[in-house]
Request: fold
Amino acid sequence: MAMTVRQRARVSRSVQYGLLALAVALFILFADWASIGKAFFNWDSAVKQFPQIITLALKNTLIYTALSFVVGLSGGLLLALMKLSSVAVWRWIATLYIEFFRGVPALLVFIAFGFGIPTAFGVRFDIYVTVMLALGMVAAAYIAETLRAGLQAVPKGQLEAARSLGMPHWRAMVSIVIPQAFKIVLPPLTNEVILLTKDSSLVYLLGLAASQYELTKFGRDGITQPNAGLTPLVIAGACYLIITVPLGILARRFESRTAKTKG
Reply:
C-alpha cells in the first residue's frame, strides 16, 4: 500500500533526524576531546584576552563598522538616486560604479587604499579614514541596489499626490518617498551591517598599531602567545557573535513587521 503524503513526510523527517543523530554520535566518539579542549577552550589563554578584547578590539570593530556604514549608506543613497535619474549620464556613472565595486573583492579595495593611493599620490590616510573609505565604498555599491529597489517599491501615487499638493520634486522625495523606502529595506540594510562587521577584519592587511587592533587581528596575535592554542580566535569569534546575533534577530523582526504591514 502506497504511503500518503503525510506518511512520506514523517518518514523523511525521521531519516533526517537519524542521520543528524548519527553524525553527532560519530563526532562525539571519534573527536580527540583532550586536544580540542587544550587548543580551543584553554581557560588560562581565554582569561588573558580580557578586558582588552572588549575595551580595544571589540570597540575598534564597532568603530570601523559604524564609519564604513555611514559612508556606505550615504554613497548608496546617492547612487540609488543616480540610477533612477532621468539624466542618462548619472545612470551610466552609477551603474559603472556599482558593477565595479561589486565585482572587485573588498580585499583589493583595502590594498588599493592602503598601499596604492599612497604610492600614486603620496597621500596616506589615517587608518580609520582608510577603513571608512575602502569598506564604505564597497558597501555603497550593495546598499545602492537595495535602496533602489526600496525606492521603486514605493507606490508612484505617493509621489504624484505630493506633487499635486504643490510640493517640489526634491522635497517630495525627501519627505515622502525616501523615508518609506528606508522602512521597506530595513531588513537588508541590517544584513549589510552584519557583512560590514565581518569585512572589517580585512583591515589587518594594512598593518595596525596595537591601539588599532580589531577582533581578528587581536585573535591572531593572541595565538602566537606560548600555549595559547586557538582559544584567542575562538574568543574573537564569540565577540563577533555578540554583534551579529542581535543584528540578525533585529533583521528578522524587521522582516516580520514588513510582512505584517503588507498583509
Q: What stands out?
A: The mean pLDDT is 91.
